Amino acid sequence: MTTEPSKWNVTDIPDQTGRTAVVTGANSGLGIVTVKALASAGAHVVLAVRDPKRGEAAAAGVRGSVEVRRLDLADLASVREFAAAWQGDLDLLVNNAGIMNIPESATKDGFETQFGTNHLGHFALTNLLLPHITDRVVTVSSGAHRMPGTPRIHLDNPNLTGEYAPMKAYSQSKLANLLFTLELQRRLADSGSSVRALAAHPGYAATNLQSHDGSALRRALMRVGNRFMAQDSQAGALPTLYAAVQDLPGASYVGPDGLGEMRGAPTLVGRSPAASDPATARRLWTLSEELTGVTFPHPAPITAA
Length: 305
What we know:
The chain is of the alpha/beta class. Helices cover 36% and strands 14% of the residues. α3 (76-84) runs parallel beside α4, α4 packs parallel to α5 (166-190) and α4 (113-129) crosses α9 (278-292).
């Protein structure tokens, strides 16, 4: 009689002693779970959060080496300040923060808030920190990049001016996360860098993200779904952690292995054709550079000692 091998979980995270990680949106939900897992494995983890007081409260419940730094992804000045203050090596950047299905609004720089926060803020942060990054960048996307209606990047109207809908904007931002990862990995490989860009999605995880939905009906439906269908935040963070510590190829995409990738153990998953288009990825990158004023820094190749 044979036994089925156990599924990957936090106990499989290798020793992270000596490694430094930054996790955005780290004071709640998937972010704080990611912080706790990495810190308990020995990493020094920086909680990059918009509200330092909430960040400190969250950090107080973490066993291990952590610190809190302010980062507002909806304000490029804050992103630049965070990156400019960084000194030394950074092994891992986890672009975890995100907002979902909110009413139409704009960031401090005038971008549609979901696109500006979920994509442009992380785009700028990653490129500004890239000279310090030694191992990998993991960006959290979503199964919403496949939402009905054929999500696409509105390159001629990324702010969705005159055509805004909360789910449309969210899907665009999550598709942008995957195209960003694809183009970042291409640029890293072409520059001779050993740094890898990967993406992950949590499936259907019950977090406070859904509570900010701009639709009362969707909020009600999500409360029911969170209670009876979703996996908890500990399980939802596993794909991110798997992408952060496993030896995976660049541009890999990790999600749950269950039906519809809604729940389950982390595994490599596919992405939509729209999220696999290198031409669109390059065009999005060019647009993102123009909008943020931040460009790819061409990191030096990392050679063996």
